[in-house]
TrEMBL record:
One of its GO terms (molecular function) is ATP binding. Keywords: Antibiotic resistance, ATP-binding, Nucleotide-binding, Transport. The keyword ATP-binding applies. InterPro entries: AAA+_ATPase (IPR003593), ABC_transporter-like_ATP-bd (IPR003439), ABC_transporter-like_CS (IPR017871), ABC_transporter_ATP-binding (IPR050763), DrrA1/2-like_C (IPR025302), P-loop_NTPase (IPR027417). It is a peripheral membrane protein. This is ABC transporter. GO terms for cellular component: plasma membrane. It is found in: Cell membrane. Pfam families: ABC_tran (PF00005), DrrA1-3_C (PF13732).
Length: 322
């Protein structure tokens, strides 16, 4: 459905070159639900804008839904929907009229445009809001109108740029319910960007992590966490004087990486905590060190990002990309 090779985009800013996207290869099959996850400024929107024909690449090749983005942008546009970061419906017409007008811009005759508008209203549970003006809707409701606006030509592939940014948790959950329904009921391919790693973790079946214009990880959330970050083990000891010895014992565990300490705790990462933690506690006991707490937790995608990029997703964009 999406095939990109060596996709690159640079911007000239005051005599310097910003490399927003640097040589990305990407293959996405029909029916996939893919989240592109990365901090602010990582290149998510730039990549999305190239895939949706809104921005020409500096170099590289890309085809979307069987159409070349450079030589057949109109073909791409008929096959895709794009929900951008800004609201797409105007303020002053009724929601249903906005949808009918939008459907007419795809060249649909009046009756069919009305039918498609009603279909989109149904899909997004917007019928009760059909006679309201977008300006009077809540953020979550407006977002659903934005999605509805992009479905009128029945695209096979839907791009969503940070669809849930700015929504409260309940509206986010509701939007996701609708997004997932589009996929289940219509087999749509979904490609979205987000900087919420919990959201990518829970919702997407494939996660692409982008940092400084490059895809640095590609896989299922579970797989990436297992392979790249493992589990975290944290123990605390009574006597701060014992922390250094407890850390040295952790360093001797063959699978342990990233052993860190603070006043009374030792943290380490291991592929599987359930086998390593009992072993570590036994070794501490043998050395006469009493652990007062011991816990393990599965890594998050933020840990994966940290392991790969060397900084947390939460820290956002590093200015040195410029
Ligand atoms: N039109 C432009 N002119 C100059 N630089 C740009 C332009 N668009 C994007 N950039 C730069 O390219 C880099 C990537 O930006 P992009 O908007 O793709 O990131 P992003 O991951 O979508 O960020 P966010 O999550 O904040 O939307 C940034 O350094 C940004 O400043």
């Amino acid at each position: 459905m999406i095939h990109a090779e060596g996709l690159t985009r640079q911007f000239r800013v005051k005599k310097t070159t910003v490399e927003a996207v640097r040589g990305i290869d990407l293959h996405i099959e029909a029916g996939e639900l893919v989240a592109l996850l990365g901090p602010n400024g990582a290149g998510k929107s730039t990549l999305l804008r190239m895939l949706t024909t809104l921005l020409p690449p500096t170099s590289g090749r890309v085809s979307v839904a069987g159409h070349d983005v450079l030589t057949d942008p109109a073909g791409v546009r008929t096959a895709i929907g794009y929900v951008g970061q800004k609201n797409s419906a105007g303020e002053n017409f009724l929601v249903r009229d906005e949808l009918v007008t939008q459907a007419r811009t795809y060249g649909l005759p009046k009756a069919q445009a009305r039918q498609r508008a009603d279909e989109a209203l149904r899909l997004l549970d917007l019928q009760p809001l059909a006679a309201r003006k977008p300006a009077t809707l809540s953020g979550g409701q407006r977002r659903r109108v934005d999605v509805a606006m992009c479905l009128l030509h029945r695209p096979r592939l839907l791009f969503l740029d940070e669809p849930s940014t700015g929504l409260d948790p309940q509206s986010r959950a509701n939007l996701w319910e609708h997004i997932l329904r589009l996929r289940e009921q219509h087999g749509m391919t979904l490609f979205l960007t987000t900087h919420y790693f919990e959201e990518a973790d829970r919702m997407a079946e494939r996660v692409l992590i982008i940092d400084r214009g490059r895809i640095i990880a590609d896989g299922t959330a579970e797989g990436l966490k297992r392979e790249l970050a493992g589990d975290q083990v944290v123990i605390s000891v009574v006597d701060p004087a014992e922390v250094a010895t407890a850390a040295a014992i952790a360093e001797r565990i063959p699978e342990a990486v990233a052993v860190e300490t603070d006043a009374t705790t030792v943290r380490l990462r291991v592929p599987r905590a359930n086998t390593v933690l009992p072993e570590y506690l036994r070794a501490l006991d043998t050395a006469g060190i009493k652990a007062i707490t011991a816990e393990s937790r599965q890594s998050t995608l933020d840990d994966v990002f940290l392991a790969l990029a060397g900084h947390s997703l939460r820290e956002g964009h590093n200015a040195d990309q410029l």
